[in-house]
Amino acid sequence: MLRPPSVSGTRPSLATTNLGGPGSANNPRVISKKKEYYTVTALERNADTLRETFLAFAKQMKQAEEGAESIGHVLANWPHMFAIISSFAQTHEATTTALAEMADNQTAEDFPPTRLVRVEIDNMHGNK
């Protein structure tokens, strides 16, 4: 299959006719469009940077929210802790009082005599 010859070589280029040929770099409209392009490109870069910053900030805020929630759960348990400590203190006080009363009521006959005995180790092994 043969293609027909290209006609692009015979027709004038659109780029050179619309932009004004070789002197188009000095064209005020082209300079204005270049400035506009560079400005829009810089704005897009800044917007991307700002977006990344906000996403990182949102991630940190999520972590702070989870930490605050954990602290809230701990603080919610404090009334229970005080109730347990109070209950333990009352039980401990009652036990201490009961033990003190028992100690006051005991006589010397309730305790066996304390005696220290010296045992020689050689006698325990059968005097080898």
Automatic annotation (TrEMBL):
It is found in: Chromosome, Centromere, Kinetochore; Cytoplasm, Cytoskeleton, Spindle; Nucleus. InterPro entries: DASH_Dad2. Its main location: nucleus. GO terms for cellular component: DASH complex; microtubule; mitotic spindle midzone; mitotic spindle pole body. Residues 1-28 are annotated as: Disordered. Keywords: Cell cycle, Cell division, Centromere, Chromosome, Chromosome partition, Cytoplasm, Cytoskeleton, Kinetochore, Microtubule, Mitosis, Nucleus. GO terms for biological process: attachment of spindle microtubules to kinetochore; cell division; mitotic cell cycle. Residues 7-28 have a biased composition (Polar residues). PANTHER family: DASH COMPLEX SUBUNIT DAD2. Belongs to the DASH complex DAD2 family. This is DASH complex subunit DAD2. It comes from Hydnum rufescens UP504.
